[in-house]
Amino acid sequence: MSNPQTLPSAHPSSSNPIPNSFTFPPAYSFPPFFTLQPNLSTRRSQLQKWSRLIQRWARQHSLFKLSLDSALDTPLFRNSALRKRLSASDGRLVVDWMASAEGGMRAEWVGGQGAGGSGKREGGGMFWVFWRREEEWGELVREWVEETGQRGVILTFWELREGEGARGREWWGMDRELFARCLETVVKRRKAQVFGGEGEEGVKFL
Question: Is 0.85 surpassed by the pTM of this model?
């Protein structure tokens, strides 16, 4: 049976309220889940389950970046009923796996690609969580602009990320750095042009 657990209220924003509960997968109720096992096939299954759990958690909380150090003390990695928590070293291995080709590139340490990002060593182990890939985010924004009749109009990054018109969209509140990377995937397809410098960026969808 899945395990609903009350979430802490430390992270909500007025624009993206966090639900009062999160439904954990069945594996979350078993103590061995919180220690990566030496058997390779068992470990791979664990890593897949942790990846899906982290992605679901981030999506429900409208989060795009996590601090591993801080998250280890939240219900995401700590089951208080079992008195079990994923260790910091195992947590880093989970993120490393998510950042690998085998893990589907579903994470990235802030400050660099794969397992070598500076976020792994500094700033509390910050990492991006790609519950949608960058190209998927870029296409979602492009489709929304098309549907709202704003194709050919220069829109600021701020309007798209935090403006009233985009409120309620899944990308609302996304970090500027990640948002720029997502739009770059559209630019590479020659479906958009980006103008201006950092902090004053605008984009026109073609």
Answer: no
Beta strands in 1-75 (DSSP E): 3-6, 21-24, 65-67
Cα 23-62-35 angle, rounded to 5 deg: 50
Q: Comparing C-alpha atoms, which of 128, 134, 124 is closest to residue 113? A: 128
E strand segments, 10-111: 21-24, 65-67, 78-79, 84-85, 107-109
pLDDT per position in the chain (206 positions), as tens? 444 443 333 333 333 334 458 899 999 999 999 999 999 999 999 999 999 999 999 999 999 999 999 999 999 999 999 999 999 999 999 999 999 999 999 999 998 654 455 545 555 699 999 999 999 999 999 999 999 999 999 999 999 999 888 888 999 999 999 999 999 999 999 999 998 877 678 899 99
